[in-house]
Amino acid sequence: MKSLCIDLFKNCSATSLAGTRSSRVLTYRFQRTNYRTHLPSTKLTFSSYSTKTCFATLSAVTSEVEEKQTFNPDKAGELVKELRNSFNSGRTKSYEWRMLQLENIAKMLEEKEKEITEALYKDLSKPEVEAFISEIVTAKSSCNEALKELRQWMIPQKVNTSITTFPSSAEIVSEPLGVVLVISTWNFPFLLSLDPVIGAISAGNAVALKPSEIAPATSSLLAKLVEEYLDNSAVKVVEGAVPETTALLEQKWDKILYTGSARVGRIVMAAAAKHLTPVILELGGKSPAVVHSDVDLQVAVRRIIAGKWALNNGQACIGVDYIITTKDFAPKLIEALKIELEQFFGKDPINSKDISRIVSSTQFKRLAKLLDEDKVSDKIVLGGQMDENQLKIAPTILLDIPEESQLMQEEIFGPLMPIVTVEKIEDSFDVINSRPKPLAVYVFTNNEQLKKGFVENISSGGMLFNDTVLHVSISGLPFGGVGESGMGSYHGKFSFDGFSHKKAVLYRSFSGDSSLRYPPYTPEKQRLLKAVISGDIFSIILALIGWSK
Asked: pTM for this one?
């Protein structure tokens, strides 16, 4: 058995799809695996580091040869070709292969929980409990449901046939799409990488995963764990930044799932359109929380905090982006928020161990700029403290900032919370509908008519009453956006369906062949055909005996 290793050291500065990093580590692992024994016969590793010298070393058992290598479209094409060969072999379609991969993912989540938590802390300073609940437990839940339900999901769905095809039977067969690409994001870098992969494997596809380079520790760990636990001829991880993602997007895939910003979502969709590749886009937007005066204020406020600052410090696509309440109720709401925030994070939240940091200096500077905008900073009613060295921003509440400010025009994705006041709570309909459709709407009220009004009049990816975020934990509900907040959905069986083609199949025998469908078309045939198609038994009988109504 030969072992071949290539280390590439390259001077580069890449702009990421979600931000800018001056240097990073790129690892692309390519491994041909004996499926029965999972023993590697060939292993090719690329690593790049920002240095002043660009060179490559090639080490083999018998010789060393210098050679430059990059993950370019040709390399991406080779990767897709290998994945397609694995898929075309039929191996990934079997129930046994799917179950084995899912069992190995479940095993990985149990055995590597500590390493996952440590990686999330390195990338985001994510508190251990938050990392466990929001990433590890949720991934376990998705995997366990797939293990439990996969056989049932794979059973063809029987459908009724009509008299025009009698005798016959019909069914809908879920077949894998083929070779799919998952492009993940950095805010929940483990969950949002693994959850779609679970769905793609459950549906019987070969998968390439591109984790976010902005969460490098998690990206590196994912590459290592996928290589260790899964069938590497059919499930691969490609690490890198814009050049690697661009090379992947130039290839023909059978489906692409992207999680991230609407700006990059447009780039992904444009690239997919060249190959008529379908996409699932999980984007975001400005998800509001509407707070009526009839609520249990303490409970409502605690749940809003849980859906904002206790959720990756506001760096979540489903997090609360801004609050809408009435002018009269706003002072009570703000005071309650102040009390509960201090209860959660102390008097000095910058140094709280229970709150995540901002992911990068680029994102920190973006948020600071939003807060420093003219006619915005003087609207702060709580917080505003920053520590660039720690990449920490305290929970910050602003009241009635200008509508034209950037804070109200773009998704905040951080710990800043504007409060918009209206005369009466029903005016919130116009506030929400004046913007692109959000990924989620959170409504706090005990008024049943108001609840009905929101369901009927507000279009959003999801809607939750008297809480935040928890709707995504219900596997029976699809998770996805609408309009600029995304297209398509996944979670639970919706993940399986999202990576499957629903093939219509009709079975007929050679019996029951009627001359009605064949020429010559006589008046009698026409009369009987109309009667049969109408389904009116009385008309059919009349047509058969030569009578008409």
From this structure: 0.84
Residues labelled as active-site residues: 282, 317
Residues in the chain: 549
CA–CA separation, 479 vs 457, rounded Å?
Answer: 20
Are the C-beta atoms of 414 and 392 separated by less than 8 Å?
A: no
What's the N-to-C CA distance of the chain in angstroms? Answer: 83
Q: In this structure, are strands 14-15 and 20-21 parallel, antiparallel, or unpaired? A: antiparallel
Checking if the pLDDT of 506 tops 90, the result is yes
* Burial category of 45 from C-beta neighbours within 10 Å (exposed 0-12, middle 13-18, buried 19 and up): middle
103 Cβ contact list (under 8 Å, min separation 6): 147
Q: What digits encode the pLDDT tens for the residues 321-339? A: 999 999 999 999 999 999 9
Rounded to the nearest 10 degrees, what angle do helices 191-202 and 138-154 cross at?
10
Average pLDDT over residues 493-508: 97
Confirm if 219 and 191 have CB atoms less than 8 A apart.
no
Which residue did the predictor score with more confidence, 65 or 318? 318
Contact 280, 490 (CB under 8 A): yes
Structural tokens at position 487: 């297209």
Residue 479 carries which DSSP code?
A: B
Q: Looking up tokens 């994510």, which residue turns up? A: 126
Determine the Cα–Cα distance for residues 525 and 189; give it in Å rounded to an integer: 65
User: Which residues are paired to 255 by β-bridges?
Assistant: 180
Residue 504 to residues 171, 277, 513, Cα–Cα distance (Å): 6, 20, 22
Distance CA 432, CA 159 (A): 40
Pairing of strands 40-48, 26-33: antiparallel
Rg (alpha carbons) of the chain, rounded to whole number: 28
**Range 164-190 average pLDDT:** 96
Q: With a cut of 70, say whether residue 32 has pLDDT above it.
A: no
pLDDT band, residue 4 (cuts 50/70/90):
very low
Average pLDDT over residues 157-178: 94
The residue among 184, 177, 204 whose CA lies nearest residue 99 is 204
129-135 long-range contacts, CB within 8 A, separation 24+: 130/310, 130/311, 130/312, 130/354, 130/356, 134/188, 134/191, 134/311, 134/312, 135/188, 135/190, 135/191
CB atoms within 10 A of CB 35: 15
Q: Are 280 and 255 in contact (CB under 8 A)?
A: yes
Nearest CA to 291 out of 445, 408, 397 is that of 445
Sign of CA dihedral 307, 311, 317, 318: negative
Q: Is 34 helix (H, G, I), strand (E, B) or coil?
A: coil
Answer whether residue 60 shows pLDDT above 70.
Answer: no
CB 233 within 8 A of CB 86: yes
